[in-house]
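queue> holo job accepted (cytidine-5'-monophosphate)
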Amino acid sequence: MKEPFVIAIDGPAAAGKGTLARRLAAHFGLPHLDTGLLYRAVARRLLDAGKDPSDGAAAEQEARSLRPADWQRPDLRTPDVDRAASIVAAEPRVRAALRDFQREFPAAHGAVMDGRDIGTVIFPDAPVKLFVTAAPAARAERRFRELQGRGIAVRLEAVEAEIEERDRQDATRPVGPLEQAPDAVLIDTTGLDPDQVFSTALEKIRARIAPAA
Ligand code: C5P
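queue> job finished
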């Protein structure tokens, strides 16, 4: 069977993956899946049900019964969900439950997919892999502004501490940890605006898949 065309984008929180993924998807006419939303949706359902996010069996059950409406909710990017998503994402049963859906997503049209383990676990043979990162202070500043823009009151130091803790949890879990695939192209977005990130990515993608770009 022909492998679907996948642009895999991984990296830590608030590095600019989502913005880049959306722009690349529009540019190449590909569907986009923000895989963080799947983990966030599992977390949201557990919190709504008053369950502990570290209850692996309950988290697996939520992951197995997830529906599109769950990851299209508008309330998935709140600080409580940030924390709980990172906890449920460390549960191997949750990762296994979400794996097949992610692997099937690009079957018909290809896809741009962003997350933590797309280029390492979900599509280790993806033709294009980007690892998007930025200095922790720059990422904290971006997330801080984003939350402020949405009227969520937070302190910058608290956002920075949260991001560091989430990075630590994501990078040290035994299953599907955040790491750069050996064949991924690194893009450091510190000091770059979204247009610069997009043009840098496009240049690097063109260098990899010259005829298709
Ligand atoms: O990307 P985002 O910050 O929305 O992801 C929320 C959480 O989901 C992350 O902190 C991470 O723990 C988890 N995640 C993951 N694997 C992915 C995408 C997200 O473990 N592919």
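queue> The first helix runs from residue 17 to 28.
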